[in-house]
Amino acid sequence: MGLSIPQMALMSRLLDEALPLDAPGRRRWLEALSPEYQSLAGALREALMPVGEGGLAGALDAGARSDLDRIGSGPRPGEIVGPYRVIRLLGEGGMAEVWLAERADGAFKRDVALKLPVLLRLREDLASRFARERDILAAL
């Protein structure tokens, strides 16, 4: 779904409301979505709900959580992280590395930039911060 710039701005504002909620709260929030925002309902559901409920939230959590919990440098080219195969390192910063990656499970064909935290165990808040960033970017 391609969103216009005004729709992206509105989506960002709506996600700010819904992302702090737990899964049942997000379901209720989506069900109560005002009719004026119904054109964004599909994109919001995809960003907020778990994979089994028509969304992408948590897509990496089950498959990659154990991979992300380790301390040290990121994966090696060709390594599988969740549903992705990393190809090459694009860049790195103080908290994360960004890898060029592709879907390894065949769900769709698209290269992505996969941001992986480097020292997740040392910062308890990083998992939720990265999950929120992932959800916001997935909605764009």
- Give the H and E element order: HHHHEEEEH
Radius of gyration, in angstroms, nearest whole number: 16 Å
Q: Give the helix level as a range of percent.
A: 25-40%
Number of strands: 4
User: What fraction of the residues are assigned to beta strands by DSSP?
Assistant: 15-25%
Count of structural domains: 2
Question: Could you say which structural class the secondary elements and strand pairing correspond to?
Answer: alpha+beta
Main sheet characteristics = 4 strands, antiparallel
The CATH class name of the largest domain reads Alpha Beta
Properties at a glance:
single chain; 140 residues; alpha+beta; Phosphorylase Kinase, domain 1; four-stranded antiparallel β-sheet
In short:
By secondary structure, the chain is α+β, with helices and mostly antiparallel strands.
Structure write-up:
The protein has 140 residues and is of the alpha+beta class. The chain folds into two domains: 49 residues, no CATH class; 80 residues, Phosphorylase Kinase, domain 1 (2-Layer Sandwich), CATH 3.30.200. The protein contains five helices and four strands; from the N terminus they run H-H-H-H-E-E-E-E-H. Strands 1-2-3-4 form a four-stranded antiparallel beta sheet. A hairpin with a 3-residue loop joins strand 2 and strand 3. Helix 1 crosses helix 3. It is elongated, with a radius of gyration of 16 Å. The chain starts with a helix and ends with a helix.
Topology summary:
Blueprint: H1 5-18, H2 23-31, H3 41-48, H4 59-68, E1 80-81, E2 84-92, E3 96-103, E4 111-117, H5 126-138
Antiparallel strand pairs: 1-2, 2-3, 3-4
